[in-house]
Amino acid sequence: MENKAELKDRNILITNNASHFVGSLACRLCEMGANVLIADANIKELQKLANAFNEQREVYPFFGRVHLVELDLESENARKECFQSASEAFGGLDCWIDYQQFFNCTNDWKDLKLEDLQSFFNKKLLNNFDLYQKAIPYLQNKRNSCILRLMPEDAKKRSEYFLYNFAQTGFQSFINTLDKHNDSGIRFFNIELGPTEDHLLSMYQGANINEALASYKKQFAQAKLVNSDELAECLAFVIGNHRSYPRINHLELGLS
Questions:
Q1: Any domain includes 3
Q2: Is there a single domain that holds both residue 23 and residue 113?
Q3: Diameter of the chain by CA atoms?
């Protein structure tokens, strides 16, 4: 295997998503030399994948390591612990990937009660905002440190995701402001993604990936399936060693 170590010794934390796609993404980043820790409440399904990958380091010593930490990030202590765990596991932290997942609302927005909206704010906005505050001490004033917010893009076109869009629009502006006006030395990026296999199979339960993609394209004709290799290459372009960051802070992958 080619020693393609663009991310050699880059230490990366991924939160909010422990899907099979994210597990494959983590392994691909580690093949490029990065060390990756995934922190999520539903981490157990990735344990076999992580163990199998880490065993390959005996054959490919330039590979980085995959670590998994089971943490419920709705807890304030867990939100602090995820950054501390990554820093302790690898001796430092260079990049945090905030990988957002869909959440929908079955009620029409006009029927929402204030207490439901307050619960939404606490779980999806305030908790996520707290993660950003807790990330800064671990990343500030380090060479090429960065925070990347990954977002499924097609929710913008689906009415049942109106609360998700409400949150994401605000956070996109928040990230743009942080990238332009902060003295921490951290770069901030928004990356919008087209559909992934995990997302399509969850949307079209019981279908195989070809059937799910065909159904999806009835609504989004130009959609292109995003695989973990493509996303890893995109991330390597943004956060790789020995290069200046691109001046843009908004990227799109797999979108029409």
A1: no
A2: yes
A3: 58
Q: Is residue 2 part of a domain?
A: no
Q: What pLDDT shows up at residue 3?
A: 47
Order of strands across the sheet that contains 35-40: 66-70, 35-40, 11-15, 95-99, 146-152, 187-193, 250-253
Give residues with Cβ within 8 angstroms of 213, minimum separation 6. Answer: 195, 200, 223, 225
Q: What is the domain extent for residue 238?
A: 11-193+226-253
86 and 176 both lie in a single domain:
yes
**Per residue in 142-185, pLDDT tens?**
878 999 999 877 655 666 667 777 777 777 788 878 777 777 88
On whether residue 1 sits in a domain, the answer given is: no
Same domain flag for 78 and 97: yes
Nearest to 135 by CA among 167, 174, 96, 100: 96
Which pLDDT score is estimated for 41?
A: 92
Cβ atoms within 10 Å, residue 181: 7
One-letter amino acid at 96 equals W
* Tokens representing residue 138 in the block: 């671990």
What whole-number distance in Å separates Cα of residue 92 and Cα of residue 120?
Answer: 33
Does residue 225 sit in helix, strand or coil? Answer: coil
CA distances from 90 to 2, 72, 110, 140 (A): 24, 21, 48, 17
